[in-house]
Amino acid sequence: MITISFIGTGHMGGSIATILSKLKDARLLLNNRHQEKAIKLASSIGDKAKAATLEEALNADYIFIGVKPSDMDSLIASFPFAPKGIIVSMAAGINLKDLEGKLPNNKIIRIMPNTPVIIGKGMTPYCFNNLSNKEEQDFISLLSITGKVKRIEEKDMDALSVLTGSAPAYLDYFLDALIKAGTKLGLSEEEIQDYVLTMAEGTIALDLASDKSPIELGKEVCSPGGSTIEGVMKMEEGGIYNMMEETVQASYQKNKKMK
Ligand SMILES: NC(=O)c1ccc[n+]([C@@H]2O[C@H](COP(=O)([O-])OP(=O)(O)OC[C@H]3O[C@@H](n4cnc5c(N)ncnc54)[C@H](OP(=O)(O)O)[C@@H]3O)[C@@H](O)[C@H]2O)c1
């Protein structure tokens, strides 16, 4: 039986805890600043999880830290003793060197999960300081239930934090804009949502299954002189590429400032 604790059971910590609870041999210990949140999550997960004190959480085999980057220093300063297990940090912008400085006796893994982890469809890049090969393989087996996991070089973490961690929000805002535009054509928002989400799921499944790139597949929808290309030209005129570049840069620069 492996013990996995979560310190900080908000959106992301709670999502990863929920999916890891499906592992056969895992027991979860949940700790949160306002402990009612951890108690509520434990009761929604069931027998596999229990709300835990900070001391109990620090004795786990893996200790996932799910607090905001700005709360990291004060959290670590409050530890009554050095954590026993492997630390897993999901904090944007806080690098391994910073964490090592604060937790010099621990093995540390840095991950950048995204919201689809809760349904096992996440994309989680990771890097670490000094894991053995076996420890890395064990970690991959543990986290694979959340979706794809991929080892990266830490220098790429800020960029990937944007493209995998933040980008689900960009995509959802795009879908919302599409749905809202659709309501101007006389359909109800509720009705359009089902069509649009199924279209998006199918489009991405095709993108993943195909040897062609998204833009090659996108161009295939645009018959010359047809209605799709008419809309696509409007997107280009409106500066969609510039807007996405600025969006990505804004999140990236913010990540860099968090260090
Ligand atoms: N959300 C995402 O999509 C996403 C993606 C990738 C990475 N991340 C990373 O995940 C981390 C959490 O983000 P989030 O969106 O899940 O934020 P969140 O919902 O605000 O969760 C943070 C949690 O940490 C708890 N907390 C704060 N200080 C604590 C302490 N000293 N001891 C125990 N618990 C404490 C908070 O408790 P209270 O509510 O009681 O204050 C809250 O439940 C961040 O570092 C972020 O960079 C998030």
What can you see in these coordinates?
With 259 residues, this protein is α/β, with parallel strands linked by helices. It folds into 2 domains: 2-152, Rossmann fold, CATH 3.40.50.720; 160-257, Orthogonal Bundle (ProC C-terminal domain-like fold), CATH 1.10.3730. It has 11 helices and 8 strands. An 8-stranded mixed beta sheet has the order 3-2-1-4-5-6-7-8, with helices on both faces. Helix 7 (157-183) packs across helix 8 (189-209) and helix 7 (157-183) crosses helix 11 (240-257). It is elongated. NADP nicotinamide-adenine-dinucleotide phosphate is lined by residues 7-13, 31-34, 37, 66-69, 71, 75, 90-92, 112-115, 165.
Tell me about the largest β-sheet.
8 strands, mixed
CATH architecture term of the largest domain: 3-Layer(aba) Sandwich
Distance between the termini: 36 Å
Calculate Rg over CA atoms: 21 Å
**Strand percentage:** 15-25%
The mean pLDDT is 97
The shape, in one word, is: elongated
Helix content: 40-55%
Number of strands: 8
Q: Structural class of the secondary structure composition?
A: alpha/beta
